């Protein structure tokens, strides 16, 4: 079968429908997954809200059943619900039809083994690609069966189990699930838990056309709408998820958007309060606030490369309690080392109730102490050559090559990392003052962009 090899990414399969992602490919992915994984039990399939996701999911299921694998169809779900299904019920693996936070023309597939262990490019995704290219599949003499399973209630109960307080304060909350499924599930959580929360909905009806563009709160322009609504409605805070809801972002009272880097200092405090002296994973993009929060609250900081598969691998290796990424992913040991976009909401509800504070009162001091550039992307032809140039230029600093090039001085630090899929270098920089951050940001950018 002729395929576009570029759709097989570091962590998933993703491309344009119906150019590179087709029903035929979906069927072959089901077959190849069955041949590579050889699952010993039922395999979960689910889909996000995209227009063709259900169709593609059913073709995956057909490929699995034609290979003799029994399938459990859990329907329309978020990514963290998909992880929950495989982990909670002990299924043998799973394939979700989803393209995460990409624009509506994108579709794709996320694949995991039993115990919610992700497939990576090196271990699973490239092998599945090669099997599809060979296209030598043989249908099983015994066809697998498909059964449906609605996991909504069990998932809601699980999320509510993270809320340890019997009584939380009354909150007015703006939610923006970016037309994904998170809004539906959050309302179910509030209703089933009888939580005293007044919900103001924004983009909260599932719509796979994503009428307002790329459904990704990590993009600064996509944060304006929720910030303005939180401010104008005098809400206590706002919650935004990306379209498949495995990343969560918060907007504090008054419309102050809380970068995940800053917000995670609160979650670290909550986790270590309940589970002291545990290991916490962080990524190299921004580190100072996280390391300080971990140490101040009695934890042990452990660094990992960026990317969910690397972080989950490192969490298992050191048995870490929790992991955070500045892109909005949060990972929990008690959630099968996977990322979840709803658990942090429960933790913020708890924190604000227990401490009787506004979210802005907690976040603003962190913002005032750690000054960050945001992620700045630049198209670069020779990514490796440019990173070597930067490493030489800043050789008098503390240089790390764990993930791209990280350079640290006493008053500023930065990371330049290559994109896995595009000819881009990504810069993130933090400093002890706003002026220094801006000066050093522009200085490093000038080097990246010279001759780019």
From TrEMBL:
Domain Alpha-D-phosphohexomutase alpha/beta/alpha span(s) in chain numbering: 7-136, 153-252, 262-370
Residue ranges of every copy of the Alpha-D-phosphohexomutase C-terminal domain listed in the record: 375-444
Protein name listed in UniProt: Phosphomannomutase
Cofactor(s) of this protein: Mg(2+)
Matching InterPro entries: A-D-PHexomutase_a/b/a-I, A-D-PHexomutase_a/b/a-I/II/III, A-D-PHexomutase_a/b/a-II, A-D-PHexomutase_a/b/a-III, A-D-PHexomutase_C, A-D-PHexomutase_C_sf, Alpha-D-phosphohexomutase_SF
Keywords assigned by UniProt, alphabetized: Isomerase, Magnesium, Metal-binding, Phosphoprotein
Organism: Candidatus Woesebacteria bacterium GW2011_GWB1_44_11
GO molecular function: intramolecular phosphotransferase activity; metal ion binding
Magnesium keyword on record: yes
Matching Pfam families: PGM_PMM_I (PF02878), PGM_PMM_II (PF02879), PGM_PMM_III (PF02880), PGM_PMM_IV (PF00408)
GO biological process: carbohydrate metabolic process
Record family assignment: Belongs to the phosphohexose mutase family.
